[in-house]
Amino acid sequence: MNLQMLNYLDILLCASTLIILYKLSTRLTKRAPFSHPPGPPGYPLIGHIKIPKEPSWEVYRDWSHQYGSDVIHLNLVGTHLVVLNSLQACTDLLEKRSSIYSDRPTVGLTMLCELCGLGWSFGLQQYGPEWRDGRKAFQSQLHAGAMQRHRPALLREIHRFLRRLCADPAEWTHHLHLMSGGLIMSVAYAIDVQEKGDPYLATGEHAIDCMRKTLTPGAYLVDILPFLKYVPEWFPGAGFQREAKAWRKSMMHVYHAPYDAVKERMAKDPAAIPECVVKSLIENMVDTAEDPGYMERVAKSVAGVMYIAGSDTTLSIIMSCILAIVLYPDVQRRAQETIDEVCQGRLPDFSDYSSLPYVHALVRESLRWNPVAALNLPHRCIADDIYRECLIPEGSIVVANIQAILHDPAVYHHPTTFNPERFLHCTPDGELTLDPNVPDPSHVAFGFGRRVCPGRFMAYQSAWLTIASILAAFRIENAKDERGVPIVPSGEYDWGFTVHPKPFKCVIRPRSKEHETLVVETAKTGEI
Asked: How big is the CA angle at 104 (ends 102 and 109), to the nearest 5 degrees?
């Protein structure tokens, strides 16, 4: 390379640099005098090169206190991350300005959506027509009023769980996993799962495991450097490609297989298939559409999202509640007193939904104490926005710190203590009711705005009846060691994208022979 060529390259480089600096200064001038929300200082030019490790919600909360702002900002190598640490900020931006805060980022989802194949999920799709159609279809099937027609299926699966629990109490965690998956398969596809080795549940659990791992911030370098997705799987260090290949197979099975099974059964005898989401979508949306192929893609996404998101959500709520009952035994005594008073020797059902406020308080406190997700799935801002005289740039990733909001001591006194009674009060005539002045955690735990979890009513109602039924018929106690000393769970959690208690021991047994009989006799109602 000669001197003339070097001089030419130097001139070209200088000119390019000047153009970039000019455009950057012009952009900054247009944005003046607004600055970004406060946050920890990063490295010059590149900002922060990594995000906090789990539990990151604590770090974000502490930064919020340190910088005196419920909205904090980080520059992640050119990508703006904005964390909202208060309900007010979430309401102002994600609810009231949802028209510009309802997109999903592509940054951080390369492994899950592109390599593992979950790009079909409308919940992860960017703001647009297909996402809107998926959201509309999902809400049409599982809005609060629509849940009435799914309640018989929920009751049937929960009673099956109770019978399994009676037959083999030691396997209570397995029974819960089976029930949470069975609930979704029944409501979405009218498929009864097998008690052992069910292929749908096995594949679904593999797909859920993929979500847990890939949605954990910083788990895969390809999410930070997306060009790595082109690296072949035989290349040194490309083990993520082999993982993705196995997960992709499960993701596509969840998307296609159960839907196709329902479609095949409907082609033979539609009347033989019980009420379910897929049957309704095929009859009322796919078969009547101008573009059936497109609408079938939407319908498959709706049903698939129900499984991979719904079963894990319900399981997390119930597991947290059982852990809390072991750690706070007075809660169980109080709940059983109210259930016994209302049910009078029978198992609870949805006719008791408004008559058991203590059980509602128990579910609410489970959602508050350790919500299903400490941080919500990120939103993306699609336009420059000014909030409290601070600039939130277009393209910013916006995250709600759900755990911090639900542990705000100004709203929930002694937030680390499990106390369902914080949601209750007595009327002047002595009636126990839910206190309308205490914020309902479900309005935070399930997300905000147009991206709020559309399956929240099913998740909540499933958890409510499961917890009420367990407490009506069973007693939850500490397990004991070989010396007879009670084993106290650590109360620790695994902090992935979804939050679950670390494995713990407890004993669940029928309260009496009469209660065991109540459970066994549920089989006589035809719930085989």
From this structure: 165
Number of independent structural domains in the chain:
1
The phi-psi region of residue 221 (left if phi > 0; otherwise alpha if psi is between -120 and 50; otherwise beta) is alpha
Contact predicate 56/217, CB 8 Å: yes
Backbone φ, ψ for residue 157 (5° rounding): -70, -35
Residue 18 lies in a domain: no
210 labeled binding residue: no
- Given a cut of 50, whether residue 26 has pLDDT beyond it is no
pTM of the model: 0.90
In this structure, what CATH number is given to the domain that contains residue 183? 1.10.630.10
Position 411 in a domain = yes
Q: Which two tokens stand for residue 246?
A: 């196995």
pLDDT for residue 8 is more than 60: no
CA distance linking residue 318 with residue 18, whole number of Å: 59
Is 110 domain-assigned? yes
Type and span of the H or E element at 290: none
Structural domain of 280? 33-525
**Radius of gyration of the CA atoms of the chain, in A:** 26
Pairwise CA distance, residues 215 & 199, whole Å: 24
Let me know if residue 8 belongs to a domain. no
pLDDT digits (tens, 9 = 90+) for 158-181: 999 999 999 999 999 999 999 999
- pLDDT tens, residue by residue, 248-276: 999 999 999 999 999 999 999 999 999 99
What is the end-to-end Cα distance of the chain in Å, rounded?
82
What six digits make up the tokens of 473? 């018929």
What is the SS3 assignment for 328-379? CHHHHHHHHHHHHHHHCCCCCCHHHCCCCHHHHHHHHHHHHHCCCCCECCCE
Residue 451: pLDDT band (50, 70, 90) is very high
Residues facing residue 375 across a β-bridge: 401
Is the pLDDT confidence value at 17 over 70? no
* Number of other CB atoms surrounding residue 503 within 10 Å: 11
Helix (H) or strand (E) holding 71: strand 71-76
- pLDDT tens-digit map of 71-117: 999 998 888 999 999 999 999 999 999 999 999 998 889 999 999 99
Q: How far is CA 34 from the centre of its chain?
A: 34
Q: Cis omega before residue 55 (within 30°)? A: yes
Matching residue, tokens 């893609």:
297
